[in-house]
Amino acid sequence: MTTLELPMYQTQHRPLPAPTPSKPKLWHPKRVLFTPDALEQPFGQRLLERMQALGLDITLLKSNRLSGLRGKDERETYRLAKQTLAVVNAPPSMLQLQPIPPSADWQFHLAKGCPAHCQYCYLAGSLSGPPVTRVYANLPEILSSLAAYEQPGRVTTFEVSCYTDPLALEHLTGSLSECVRYFGTREGAQLRWVSKFAAVAPLLELPHNGHTRARVSVNAEPVSARLEGGTAPVSARLSGLRQLAAAGYPVGVVIAPIMPIEDWQAHYTALFGQLEQSLNLPCDLTFELISHRFTPGSKEVLNSWYPNSSLEMDEAGRAVKRNKFGGLKYVYSKDVMGELRAFFETEIAVRFPQARVLYWT
Ligand code: SF4
How far is the CA of 243 from the centre of ligand 1 (A)? Predict the structure, then answer.
């Protein structure tokens, strides 16, 4: 089907043709480490074969401990870590799932870490040590632990993007495809993943059975251009999402982190224009709206990773929100939140009347 033949029902404006997909840039780690335990897993062996076929520089470690990851200072440690992929077994604690409201009922993990360089990265507060990307060789065991968490009588949702960007790694691992295939066989469960990457080709032919909601995370151009190093351009992410929608996946747009930058209405209006252009085809579409926030811990880590960042993290201009464990985060003031929220919800209601907004936070 060509672009011009696509029926549209979600836009009330004159449609522009959707952008032509270009070939996404793929991440190739400078070194890959395999632990002995990972190599005992059949999936670990498959990962080894894939990565050998890609001609990557592979080291088979003698011990299960990842060592020698530090450089001479924080900058070098960060740089080396972001160029390294480690294939390990997820620890047993990862087989005990944790809830993840409001995104999904449960979270599970196919990897921990991400090769991109977003200066507000959500992982900063939850990863310890050098930010090496760790891929899990015992993924089949992790997947087989999920059925116990399905709740009878309703669709139970499972989020797989809390500690990584799964699409960023897919060309190297095939792990996201494993998850999609698994969820394709589950009637009472839905997989949810989100990405700032665009290489969706491996997913298009999978038997997903509509049980995976594929989402991309997008932002206004100044935020994306200044703060999202190493990711795919927003236009490429949207082109990937369009292809996934055309392949029958339920899809979603996560606008995050929303920031009241200078001229924010104009910049986010332009983003909505891009969204309309890309998603002018029939699809099951949701939106998730996440305003920027930070914690004392994430601010400290981000300042060490990106000392020259222009990201605003001034506690004085923020409101404090506490969780039930006493931890605090800095969010925008009630007034700013109200203004942002009204803008986004109105834009979505007008431009995408069939879409559902799952939450604002
Ligand atoms: S893509 Fe997501 S996980 Fe990766 S660096 Fe950016 S915010 Fe962090």
Answer: 22
DSSP 39-68: HTSHHHHHHHHHHHHTT--EEE-SSSS---
Q: Which two tokens stand for residue 19?
A: 């952008």
- DSSP, res 205: T
Give kind and range of the element (H or E) at residue 121: none
CB 111 within 8 A of CB 164: yes
- What ligand 1 atom has the least distance to the C-alpha of 197? 1
Cis geometry, peptide bond prior to residue 233 (ω within 30 degrees of 0)? no
Residue 187 CA to residue 150 CA, distance in Å, equals 10
Confidence of residue 15 (pLDDT cuts 50, 70, 90): very low
H or E element that contains 178: helix 175-184
Residue type, 212: T
Closest CA to 280 of 312, 234, 320, 246: 246
Q: Could you tell me if the CB of 237 is within 6 A of ligand 1?
A: no
At 212, is the secondary structure helix, strand, or coil?
strand
Per-residue pLDDT of 202-248, as tens digits, reads 999 999 999 999 999 999 999 999 999 999 999 999 999 999 999 99
Question: Does residue 281 sit in helix, strand or coil?
Answer: coil
Ligand 1 neighbour 165 (Cβ under 6 A) = yes
Q: Is the CB of 196 under 6 A from ligand 1?
A: yes
Task: Point out the least confidently predicted range of 43-52, 88-97, 245-254, 323-332.
Answer: 323-332
Q: CA nearest 24: which of 291, 241, 186?
A: 241
pLDDT at 19: 53
Beta bridge mates, 194: 215
C-alpha neighbours within 13 Å on the C-beta side of residue 200:
27
Q: Contact at 8 Å (CB) between 8 and 181?
A: no
Kindly tell me if the per-residue pLDDT of 2 is higher than 50: no
pTM over 0.90: yes
Residue of 78, 85, 109, 118 to mutate, ligand 1, most atoms within 8 A of C-beta: 118
